[in-house]
Amino acid sequence: MALSVRGLPKLSTTKASKATRVVTRASMWYGPDRAKWLGPYSDNACPSYLKGEYPGDYGWDSAGLSADPETFASYREAELIHARWGMLGALGCVGPELTGDSSLAPNPWFKQGALIFADGGLDYLGNPSLVHAQSIIAVLACQVVLMGLAEAYRVNGGPAGEGLDKLHPGESFDPLGLADDPDTFAELKVKEIKNGRLAMFSMFGFYVQAIVTGKGPVQNWQEHIADPWNVNGFPEVFATKFTPN
Q: Is pLDDT of 156 > 90?
C-alpha cells in the first residue's frame, strides 16, 4: 500500500510518520484544502477536474481549457517550460543593464544582441577570453544544436537516466540533491511555477516598456523611483498620447 499526492513521490506505509509529515505540510498547496483563487469564496467556483494534484493548481479554469486530461497535460508542460524560459529571460533582460556591453557601459537588452555585428563583436562581461561572439551563424548553430539536444534528452531520456519524469527528471539533473526530500521537492515545484508565472508577466512588461519608452527595465525602474508621481506608466502611454493640440 502506498500514499501519494500528485507531485509527491509514492511513500510506503513503512514510512508512515514521514508520509504524515509530508502530506500535512503539502496540504497547503495540494489537495482539496489547498489555497484557491477566490480564497474563502472558492466553494463551487473550482471545476471538479482540478483536484489539487499538481503544483500551482489554484482551481481556476473559467474557460475550461483543462477539462480534457490530455490537453491538461499538454498545457501543464507548455506552461512549465515557458515559465523556466521566462525566468531565464527576465534575468537576461536585466543583466545587460547591470553588467553593461563589451565596454561594461550600461546597455538595454534589446540592443545587446546587435553588438555581435560590431567590429569587435560581443564580449560577455567585457572579457574576450570568457565568451567572444562575433558570428551570428555560429551563435545560431550552437543554440540549435545545444537546445535541440537538451530538449531531446529531456523528452526521450539518455545515459543520465532512463524513464525519468520529463518535467522534473531529478537524478543527474539535480546534482545538489534539492529534491531528495519529498516534502522539499513538492514545495520547490510550487515555488518554481509561481516564480515562473511572475517571470512570464515580467517579460511581457519588458516588451511593452521597450516599445513605449525605448529603455530597459532597470532604467525605467530608476526613473520611476526618482519621480514616482510622474513616471509610472500612465503619462507615457495615455496622458502624452491623447493631449489636446
A: no
